[in-house]
Amino acid sequence: MSEPPDPITINDVLFAFPRAFSLDLKILRAYYGVHSLEIRHDSSSPFYLPTPEGGSKSLFVPSDSGISLLTVLNKSYEFEKVMFFQELAGRVTGEVTLIDIGANVGLFSRQCLNRIGNARFVHCYEPHPDNFELLARNLGGIERVSLVNKGLGAEESRLAFYEDPQNVGNYSLNVHAMPERFGRTEIDILPAHSQEEAWLSPGLPILYKSDTQGFDEIIATSLGDRVWQQVEGGSFELWRLADKQFDRERFARILDVFPNKRFEKNRQQPVSTAEVMEFLSHEDNAADDLLFWK
Predict the structure, then answer these.
(1) Residue range 61-108, pLDDT digits in tens
(2) Cα separations in angstroms, 125 against 84, 131, 183, 282
(3) Residue 38 sits in which domain range?
(4) Which of 59, 68, 207, 233 suits a disulfide with 39, CB 3.0-4.6 Å?
C-alpha cells in the first residue's frame, strides 16, 4: 500500500505564490493587455489614504513583475527609504516640502503622505505618459500635491526615453540602463532651475528624492546653490552607466554640503564625497542609492 502524499502546508503556499504571481503578471501584461491593477489597502499599509467620504483611496499599480509584485507582496514599496525620509522630517521644526523627481506612479510620495504628517507641499515629476496616468490616479485631487508630466534636466528639450518591458520602475534616458529588449518613446524635459522658485518660495526645509535611472547627477548640478542650502536631506539614485556626462566638480560640491552620506546597501558605513565620486567613476551598471543629510 502506497503512503499518502504529504499535505500542502501554508508554508508551501507562501513559498509558491510569489513565483507564480510573478509569472501571472507577465502573462496578464503581455498576452491579455492588462496594464494596471487596482488595490484597496487597509489602514495597516503605508499606502492607505483616507477619503473625505470616509473610505480609502485606491492604489493603482502597473501590472509588471517589478513594482506590482513587490507592492502586492509587501503592502509597501521601498519602505526603508520612506522611513529615512520620515526621520528627516522629524528633525525639522514645522513643515517641510517634499520633492519627488522620477515619481513613477507615486508609490514613494503616497507612502510619505501617510507617514510624514508635516509634509506641507509635495512636488512630483514623472515624464512617461502611462506612469503619469497612474500617478494622477494615486495622488490626484490632493490639494498640497503638485503633479508635473515632464522630466527635469539641464535645459528644455524633447528626448528619447527607454522602457524596460518587465519593470516600469526601470525607464531611463540612458539606453545602457535597459535589458536586451526594450521599448522607446519621447518625453518632454523642463530646465530643473525653472522649478526652483516653486520649491523655495514657501521657505520650508526641503526633502529631496531623485530616482531617474542615471539622470540624477545632471538634474542636481542644474539646480542653484539656494536649493541645496534649503535641502535638509534626501536621496540620489547613483547608477554606474556608460555615456553619463555631468559636471563632476559641481556634483562633488553639492555632496560636500551634506556631512552625512551613506549608501543604502550599507547604511552603517559613512562615506565621504571622494568615495562617492570614486563609486561613480566606473561603468559596470552597478547601482546604489545615496542617502544624505545635514
Answers:
(1) 998 888 888 898 899 999 999 999 999 999 999 999 999 999 999 999
(2) 21, 11, 21, 28
(3) 10-74
(4) 59
Beta carbons of 193 and 156 less than 8 angstroms apart: no
278 and 205 together in one domain: yes
Neighbours of 45 (CB within 10 A): 19
Classified as helix, coil or strand, 145 is strand
What residues form DSSP beta bridges with 61?
Answer: 37
DSSP lists the bridge partners of residue 121 as 97
- 203 burial via Cβ count (<10 Å: 0-12, 13-18, 19+): exposed
CATH code, 108: 3.40.50.150
Calpha distance 115→82 (Å, rounded): 8
Residues 6+ apart with CB under 8 A from 9: none
| 216 and 152 Cβ atoms separated by less than 8 Å | no
- pTM of the prediction? 0.93
User: Tens digit of pLDDT for each residue in 175-233?
Assistant: 999 999 999 999 999 999 999 999 999 999 999 999 999 999 999 999 999 999 999 99
Q: 189 with 225, same domain?
A: yes
Our CA dihedral for 220, 224, 230, 236, rounded to 10 degrees, sits at: 0
